[in-house]
Amino acid sequence: MLKSMTGFGIAEYKDDERTVRVELRSINNRYLKVDLRLPDVLQSFESEIERSIREKINRGTVLLNVNYQSLRQESEYVLNSERLKEYYQLLSGIKKEIGSRERISVNSLIQLPGVLQKGKNREEHADALLSLCVSLVDEALKKMLEMRAVEGRHLGKDIERRKELILSILDKIETRAPDVVKEYSKRLQGRLASLLTGIAIELTDSNLCREIAIFAERCDITEEISRLKSHLYQLQEAMHSDEPIGRKLDFIVQEMFRETNTMCAKANDSVMLKDLVDIKTEIEKIREQIFNIE
């Protein structure tokens, strides 16, 4: 089943103490890129949160935004008064030993290690917040994947329709191919008859047959049609795979372009060239859709 790389999911939690809102967006990318925007309290858990996304996404740029708001009044830092007293007593003792009269300021003591510390409540709630955040990410991810699946079905229907159109044009070209040689034979005979009027030169049927055979060989596109049909069947088969097949489809489309360009170079018929241009147009539209497939 095809999956689009474009999607959106949102999940939110709110109680008397906090509000957490998770938003997930995904856009096209040839590879997988995860961009996280986390609050400070979750910065150290970036790898854990990213891992939960990478387990379920294979291609695309995924943008995660986590908005966290605490409804409680918490100080970000607390003063460790016991540590401050230890520093003061230590420095006071040294002052007496060396006979210094320099004043010990509170500002200088606060800058010493361990005097100002992160609020314990913030640290205690970090693990719980991580668990809640991962749960919300999974919920938002589920919604985003559902959206990607719905979009993937629409892409699949469009690709299927264009594939059938290409097959119908190929059938038309196959039917037209023998007439191209016949028309060339008539034009060649008429042209030669006009040029050789009044000239004592006679061309044998073998000469004409050899020239017509060379033309038929030069403009024969039977093998290219067969290979293009084969690529279309491969495209159809890949679209029903449960695995991410965006890159595989991209390769198949490149081969379809290659065969069509070869046919355009060989075709010596205006009607056939018009049909081949229509095929190239449909292949290009398929490629545009494949850019969105995971």
Automatic annotation (TrEMBL):
KW Hydrolase (keyword) present: yes
Keyword terms of this UniProt record: Endonuclease, Hydrolase, Nuclease
Any coiled-coil regions, as ranges: none
Endoribonuclease YicC-like N-terminal domain location: 2-156
Obligatory cofactor(s): a divalent metal cation
InterPro entries membership: YicC-like_C, YicC-like_N, YicC/YloC-like
UniProt KW Nuclease keyword: yes
Domain Endoribonuclease YicC-like C-terminal, residue spans: 173-294
Family in the record: Belongs to the YicC/YloC family.
Protein name stated in the entry: YicC family protein
Organism whose genome encodes this protein: Candidatus Brocadia sinica JPN1
